[in-house]
Amino acid sequence: MTGRKLRPDRLLGTGLIGLLAAGCQSTDGFGDRLLSNPFEDQSNLEQRIAAQPQSENGLKLGAMLPATGELGQLGRPMLQTLPLLVDTVNRCGGVNQTFVSLVLENQVAQPLEGAVALTKLVEGNRVSAVVGAFSNEVTAAALPVAVQDKVLLISPASSSPALTDRAEQGTFKDFWARTIPSDRQQGVALARLAEKRGFRDVAIVSVNRPEAIALAQSFTTAFEKQGGTVRDKTQPLRYNPGTDPLTLEELAYAAFAPFDPPDAVLAILDRNGGASLMQSAIQLGLTQGIPVMLTDAVRMDAFLQRVGKASNGTSLLTGAIGTAPAADGPGYADLAKLWQEQFGGSPSSLVAQTWDAAALVLLAAQAAKSNSREGIASKLRQVANPPGKTVTNVCEGLALLKQGQEINYDGASGKVDINAAGDVQGSYEVWAINEKGQFDAIDRIRLEP
Questions:
Q1: Is pLDDT above 70 for 6?
Q2: Which of 136, 219, 242, 441 is deepest in the core (most CB within 10 A)?
Q3: d(CA 168, CA 40)
Q4: Contact partners, residue 325, CB within 8 Å, separation at least 6
Q5: Is 404 helix (H, G, I), strand (E, B) or coil?
Q6: Euclidean distance between the first and final Cα of the chain, in Å?
Q7: What is the pTM of this model?
Q8: Would you list the DSSP string of 32-51?
Q9: Mean pLDDT over each residue of the chain, to the nearest integer
């Protein structure tokens, strides 16, 4: 193993150190318990990443996740997860007898800029694999870069069914995977939720985007198999991003149909127009007595703030329910304990999926006995799937691989068995919005493969 040489300038994308540090200053002793001398007592993410040791030929793990903007609320905890994992792995011997280091890029909103960011990681920083991206559009734009440069892109957040379709056509050549289930599975989970709630007649209103349409179609197929009825199948109620408020109001009226209301409305929305639509429906009194089902795309404080509060200060969306990918894998308890020690509280949404995505990259590199891009991509499914020895701890998995044994990593988010299209089977948390505008977990829906 080569000597430790700190290169903070090579570890972070331009400007991201300060952004992440600002997002972490409320934490107590970030990194204190995992970093050994002489790197103890670092108090924020900037110091922690800068203090990570590097080996001359060590594995560079790239990440492209949002640190700023509305998505930063979700992205910052995901980014905080990565040095937690890397510290853990480096303390138990690293990968292929070298240290692992991080190179981070802030995922921007525009798909083209996302492709540029991935190019910087791949061609400038020479990373071996990349955890990301977050949004479906950025991931879709970045994947041609990943395929061209033969580097694995593994997302903990992009759930578009279109990515499955393209993978099944061989477009991505095994340089794509994800640890979050496809939205087609969320459609099935929502149908199960509707059945559990006794809904038999459901209206759907959605944003006019491919992933929303695919989710609606998945829900419709599953719900009808259960004996339910979906309204407006021949003339779906959809709106384009940027639609004017008056049109959204008319769409809300059509969905909630006050003179012939459905049992429930499934609202597959974006964070902007969707908030305006729901605000109109509530202020017009259309939602009274009609349950609203939402999706993980709007499970954010910013969405609730846009919809607004009642005169008594309670959230206008109080009582709405929805689904989001769950974290209930056999390795979750250990991650939750580590998170509690570092930050207090429990891991937030998609933290477990991020941990698993990075863990699989490092395990695949060890299985390949190489930190090369193609080596990692070639071994990903081998370490994620049976028939190897089941492990839930990344250090245990690395130790067995070093001994020449095969493993089957069952992660914090779930079993993370990855199929030929790069997809995993998931389970879903059911949540409800309380009067304070908080998301309370109230149930769990598990889907069979």
A1: no
A2: 219
A3: 47
A4: 159, 180, 181, 186, 296, 349, 350, 353, 413, 426, 427, 428, 429
A5: coil
A6: 43
A7: 0.88
A8: TTTPPTTS----SHHHHHHT
A9: 89
Distance CA 160, CA 144 (A): 16
CATH superfamily of 8-183+329-409: Response regulator (3.40.50.2300)
With a pLDDT cut of 90, the percent of the chain lying above it is 82
Q: What is the C-alpha separation between 268 and 220, in angstroms, rounded?
A: 13
The structure tokens 């190897």 sit at 388
Please check whether the two domains, 8-183+329-409 and 184-325+427-446, share a CATH topology. yes
Tokens of 318: 């109080």
Which letter does DSSP use for residue 418 in this model?
A: -
Alpha helices for 323-350 (secondary structure H): 332-343
State how far the Cα of 289 lies from the Cα of 138, in Å rounded to an integer.
38
Q: What is the rounded CA–CA span in Å between residue 336 and residue 102? A: 22
Per-residue pLDDT tens over the stretch 136-191: 999 999 999 999 999 999 999 999 999 999 999 999 999 999 999 999 999 999 99
Structure tokens at 279: 């605000």
Give the model's pLDDT for residue 422: 98
H/E stretch holding 193: helix 183-196
Residue recorded with tokens 């003179």 = 259
For 390, other C-beta atoms within 10 Å of its C-beta total 13
CATH class of 184-325+427-446: alpha beta
Half-sphere exposure of 428 (CA within 13 A, CB side): 25
pLDDT in tens, 7-32: 333 333 333 433 443 333 333 222 23
Strand ranges of the sheet holding 100-106, from the earlier edge strand across to the other edge? 100-106, 59-65, 129-132, 152-155, 176-178
Domain boundaries, the chain: 8-183+329-409, 184-325+427-446
Distance CA 155, CA 356 (A): 10
Confidence (pLDDT) at 39: 24
DSSP 2: P
Q: What is the pLDDT of residues 340-383, one digit of tens each?
A: 999 899 999 999 999 999 999 999 999 999 999 999 999 999 99
